[in-house]
Amino acid sequence: SNNRIEIFDLYYNFKECLNFEFNNPCGITLDKNNNLLICDTHNERILLFDKNNILKKEIILNDNNIKFHPNNIIVDNLNRILVSDTINNKIFIFDESYNFIKHFGESGENDYQLSSPQGICVDENNDIIICDTFNSKVKIFDQYGNFIKLFGIKNKKTMTYNHPDNITSCGEFI
Predict the structure, then answer these.
(1) What is the rounded distance in angstroms from the CA atom of residue 67 to the CA atom of residue 31?
(2) 120 - beta bridge partners?
(3) Are strands 128-132 and 117-122 parallel, antiparallel or unpaired?
(4) Are 28 and 5 in contact (CB under 8 A)?
(5) How sure is the predictor about 10, in pLDDT bands with cuts at 50, 70 and 90?
(6) Are 78 and 55 spatial neighbours (Cβ–Cβ below 8 Å)?
């Protein structure tokens, strides 16, 4: 809760601190140009810093119907930016120029619905893998946002996953 981003070198030596007006920075990733993308959750925006850690862009969703709460962020194999939003129960997709393309997801417990999606990654086929945290499942959607399958069982007697909140993929492994 110190609302800052600290940068270290490859040998774990502290380099600098991004002192910016963050309010609960959560997800962080690099784009194809090594720009730093940070989900500034409670400020309802994504910030883009260049290689010199200079703020270059503030990405705000201009939709009066949705209050944007970015939580986690990745760049897929198509250079699209994918962002999980835990409040709206959606995944937002932006193009490589950071323009909003679409979102998918809705609140609920059905296979295709989400409840506080947090961790997000893609596999080698660009399928989107999401930690559906409050449904205690991991769900897979195709690159267009169509539900494919899920992992995990949630009921009162058995819970395969207990509120998963982060995930990554490497080749054929999740």
Answers:
(1) 24
(2) 130
(3) antiparallel
(4) yes
(5) very high
(6) no
Nearest partner of 35 among 20, 61, 55, judged by Cα: 55
Q: What is the pLDDT of residues 147-169, one digit of tens each?
A: 999 887 665 555 566 666 667 67
How many Å apart are CA 130 and CA 156, to the nearest integer?
Answer: 22
What is the per-residue pLDDT across 80-114, written as a single tens digit (0 to 9) for each?
A: 999 999 999 999 999 999 999 999 999 998 889 99
How far the first Cα of the chain sits from its last, in Å, is 29
CA–CA dist 113, 133 (Å, integer):
12
Residue labelled with tokens 């009066």: 64
**Distance from C-alpha of 113 to C-alpha of 84, rounded to nearest angstrom:** 13
Residue 45, pLDDT above cutoff 90: yes
DSSP 8-state symbol, 107? B
Cβ neighbours of residue 98 closer than 8 Å, sequence gap 6 or more: 46, 48, 57, 59, 81
The pTM of the whole model exceeds 0.70: yes
Q: 122: helix, coil or strand?
A: strand
Supply 15's token pair.
């380099």
Question: In this structure, what DSSP letter does residue 36 have?
Answer: E
> What Å distances lie between residue 7 and 48, 153, 162, CA to CA?
15, 38, 31
